[in-house]
Specification:
two-stranded antiparallel sheet; two-stranded antiparallel ribbon; 2 domains; DNA-binding; Arc Repressor Mutant, subunit A; 12% strand; alpha+beta
């Protein structure tokens, strides 16, 4: 059983799902087109086989991946992202931007497809549509 944060905090509860070592990299590899155990193992250099197996099982249980049997003997599965895991794109982008700004060596950066300019993340209010500065954000408890 994996360790869980027992805190009333969205960050802690999100980390319970995606915070284990290799988890985000596995999801990102599926996002990039690696769909089978073998493809994932080849694309994630250094991941132990038992850990990959365990993470895939956990990701399916947490509904971050769906799996379907594509060969019965021996059983082989293909993995697909769920809507829940597709929503992680903003996290990947934020991590890529942060890494480009702060790592000693950046491997990738996000660019605007049309003009090639560097991009930043922007917050937009779902209610009124206004662009919001980071300084104007507050975290409030959810009502109900």
């Amino acid at each position: 059983m994996k360790k869980q944060y027992d805190m009333h905090c969205n960050i802690a509860q999100t980390l319970n799902l995606i915070g284990d070592r290799w988890t985000l990299l596995i999801l990102h590899a599926v996002r990039e087109g690696r769909r089978t155990y073998k493809d994932l193992q080849e694309g994630l250099e250094g991941i132990p086989t038992n850990l990959l197996s365990s993470r895939l099982k956990s990701l399916c249980e947490d509904e971050l991946l769906s799996c379907s049997l594509y060969q019965e003997h021996p059983p082989r599965y293909q993995y697909e992202l769920t809507d829940k895991s597709r929503d992680l794109d903003d996290i990947y982008n934020a991590m890529m931007i942060w890494g480009d700004r702060h790592l000693h060596k950046s491997y990738k950066c996000l660019k605007h497809k049309d003009c090639g300019g560097a991009v930043d993340i922007q917050y937009v209010c779902r209610e009124c549509g206004k662009v919001i500065r980071k300084e104007d954000l507050i975290a409030k408890p959810v009502e109900g």
